[in-house]
Amino acid sequence: MSHVKQTELRKRLSGVLSDLYGGEVPAYNMLVEVAQEVNQEHQRQHPEKAGQFGSLERVTAERHGAIRVGSPDELAQAARVFGAVGMYAVNFYDLRDAKPNPIPVVSTAFRPTDRQELAENPFRVFTSMLVPEDRRFFTQELEHRLKNYISQRTLFSEELLTLADSAVNGNGLPEEQAQRFLDLAAASFALSSEPVDRAWYDELEDISSVAADIGGVSSTHINHLTPRVLDIDELYSRMELRGISMIDSIQGPPKWQGPDVLLRQTSFRALSEPRLFKESDGSVSEGELRVRFGEVEARGMALTREGRALYDASMAEVDSEVARSGRTRSDVASEVWAQRFPRTDIEFLKADLGFFTFALTSDAPASELPTSLIDLVTSGHVQVEPIVYEDFLPRSAAGIFASNLSGDGNMRDAQGEAPRDAMWMSGRIGTPVLDSFDIYAQERSSSLAQVCQQLGMHVDDLILPWKQD
To answer: TM segments (predicted)?
Structure first.
């Protein structure tokens, strides 16, 4: 019997969930179709950029999903399921202080971390966990009822979790077990047909639509599944021309003339979906919920800590100027970016604002080459390639959520905010929550070490922009 390795299992899981979500939310299929059209045209029109942020094959296959769970136990089980396909918790995101709408969740993203694994299939799942202990959102009495409700449900079957553990231990599963794993995983993430308790759901929705979507139902489901596009502005226009209602703006960095950085996201608005409701008298009636939407993303260069600090400061400057002047955010952001950010990859490298990999393009002996990395690059002896940003932006995620919420929710001015951080989450899921800056830095270091090895020199002999005094 053939053995399905974790990489192949991840590819299959991404495909299975894409088919599942497309059947549940048909507009998603249109989003994928338009994204593929835009990507193919963009590559034809801009051949000089082809492959800069991944091959067309990778971009076409790329998806990120989102699910929501209610407790640390459920999050730990999700970690086991995603661990089966080589996806690990990267970064801790706290959306409880997000603007414009605080959301009572903390999140992480499960994804591959190795460069080759990302090239094979960069499936990611942004996973949010409810925080019932936070008194800004939930009273103690509601916390107890929420925890009791969540503790009585089962999101992932024991059979699925056992298969997941076997896949981790054996780097995959035999074919028959692999198919069983995929069937059980798909069932776990499918939208349930079980009636929703209307009174309970409405009580939670008064606090937060996200809280209701997590704690007001008996299962989890795919909240959105996101394709990647190379020109998100063009996709936005084409979706509207097809009659799809998009949210008001594209979240993240503005469109400008310099290098693409971090992540830009948008979505079509959440659609009303028919659901069954259990009424207070025990009867079952038909109704609708509007919680799932179609997100799409464009990815750019991963920024260093210094680059990310510049990004955050620039966003704050945009907020201040928009509030002061009343001008459009896109106009202000374009001006701020032009003033604050370099316009070329080389300038990003010189200022140590972005992460890059390196490749030797010269056969000249090391003794004839400059000892500065910047000089090696500008003289053409070493080629640079920006590292793709593989992660998320809390502000952008919150902006997407807020644009699709059915209400503003209700947040109290209270103490007892239930502190949460990456260390706390690591302890609950039993595996480290990795820091993406460390991952990108390691990828840069490995690439540079290979170049130095080819040159017969040591990395310490090079003058590096991130090690300048």
So the answer is: none
